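Good morning C.,

I know you're traveling, so I'll keep this short. The sequence:
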Amino acid sequence: MLLWRGKKLSNQSQIITNLISEHEVIKEQLKRADEAIQDWQKTLESEKTHQQGSPMESLSDKQWKLVQAIGYLEDGLSNHYQRELKEIGPFVGLLNEALIIEQDEILKELLRIKLLLTDINLKGSSGAELAKKYSNINKDIEITYQRIYDHSTINDYFLRILLKAFTHIEGKEERYDGTEKGA
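The tokens, ready to paste straight into the viewer:
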């Protein structure tokens, strides 16, 4: 078993590789959510939706699919963030605190967007009012999704650096604590 600054390193390379793979799954969830946004926007912009007195069921269905997509993303991110903190937290010191703050902010923003979407009254709003509300929410979604992509990209880079370090440590004959391998 390898030691680094008194911390046992067991299977860290595989753990980091798994976390990096999870980022790809998260990016796929973002793509699916983005597809739901595009579908929602197309429905919102269609002439049929804006006609006075027309049923808004199609828009409501699209909105619900978007809420679900954001919910799946939120759940996946929450579970992934917990694993990241558990597995790499001890190695990042102060960066760990920054990671927690950023993750909390992203999750709070997703919850806020979900609440905004579920609070919109489709039947009591005019087409113009809905368009304005949806436009504002869409801007929030775009900003939040960019933060998620940026977070994943930065974490990928950070995890790859850690992976290099663990691979390097695993290949050394001497541990960082001064003892020999196998001792």
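Safe travels,
E.
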